[in-house]
Amino acid sequence: MSSSSDCPTGPRPSASSSRWRSTPTARLLARTVRGGENIGEAVVLATCNRVEVYADAATFHGAVAEIGDALATAAGVPLADLREHLYVHYEDRAIAHAFTVACGLDSMAVGEGQILGQLRDALRAAQAEGQVGGALNSLFQQALRVGKRAHAETGIDRVSVSLVESGLEHAARTLGPLEGTRVLVVGAGSMSSLAATTVSRLGARELVIINRTHAKAEHLAAATGGRAVPFDALESALAQADLVISCTGAVGHVVGAEAAARAAATRESAAQSAARQEPVAVVHRHWPRPVPVDHQGSDRL
To answer: Which band of pLDDT confidence, cut at 50, 70 and 90, is reported for residue 19?
Structure first.
């Protein structure tokens, strides 16, 4: 592969990357990019904090222009508004960036292994659409090998474990020992799985898993001794939890301001009836916060 043909670019979270994780949306973007006269191959990688287009390009500046226009069109915003969220790598830096991503070094939770599956899915989707050839196939296969070695031969996976443990330590300062607490985990990915497994091991009295895809919540609940509830039950689950752990890739608040207010009111009413005060701790690994900041200012949250 000619290194000068690599041209990854993508918007950061404020460009609302959650919409790109839809497979049809990512494939449409790749198809649009691939249709450019300066681009021979294209793969779209969409994660919780990035959208990247990897392209085998005939000309650098022409490819950058075509990818930028495709991103702006797909996002439904003017290119000028999107430009500040874009970054570009090329030649050796593009290859190094792909390897860095595969190792989990550029992830929100450094070292998380989920990125390897996301890279593999992105490559397979591009292969299925006939949008990738020898150049990008070689790059992605090598990046996957590098990523696997990094996870197998180093302690990088411990970083995510440390993040979860650190968050739970902070929660324990508010709640006391986590044994006997009622825990709500929002999300069902790798970090959610790690968090659910940890609180289960610490003796949580009740573990509730909630995710937009209910089947994933059920799978995680079965593996951790928890209980899965539908996503539309989030408000009531929030009102009953002592500890809320949010590990999603959502862009924006997971719990809206009004829903947070109703859940807080329900919880405070129950606490008053029982003549006790029950603080709530919220641990999250994404930005912005899962609960609007004005409600996080409550003296019991």
So the answer is: low
Do 225 and 148 belong together in one domain? no
3-state secondary structure of 147: helix
Residue after which a domain boundary falls, among 94, 125, 153 = 153
pLDDT at 60: 92
Supply the residues annotated as catalytic: 48
272, burial (CB in 10 Å: exposed 0-12, middle 13-18, buried 19+): exposed
In this predicted model, which residue has the larger pLDDT, 86 or 145? 145
Sheet strand arrangement including 50-57: 39-47, 50-57, 9-11, 86-88
If asked whether residues 97 and 144 sit together in one domain, one would say: yes
Q: What is the mean pLDDT of residues 3-31?
A: 52
- Select from 153, 180, 211 the last residue of a domain: 153
Per-residue three-class SS string for 158-197 = HHHHHHHHHHHHHHHHHHCCCCCCEEEEECCCHHHHHHHH
- Cβ contacts of residue 76 below 8 Å, gap of 6+? none
User: What CATH number is associated with residue 140?
Assistant: 3.30.460.30
pTM (two decimals): 0.59
The token duo for 88 is 């570009």
The amino acid present at 128, given as its one-letter code, is: A
How is residue 86 written in tokens?
A: 């874009």
Domain of residue 38, residue span = 3-153
Neighbouring CB atoms inside 10 A of 111's CB total 21
- The confidence score (pLDDT) of residue 256 equals 66
Please check whether residues 134 and 168 belong to one and the same domain.
Answer: no
Q: Do 209 and 233 meet the contact criterion of CB atoms below 8 Å apart?
A: no
> Which residues, including other chains, have CB under 8 Å from residue 81's CB and lie 6 or more apart?
none
123 confidence band (pLDDT: 50, 70, 90): very high
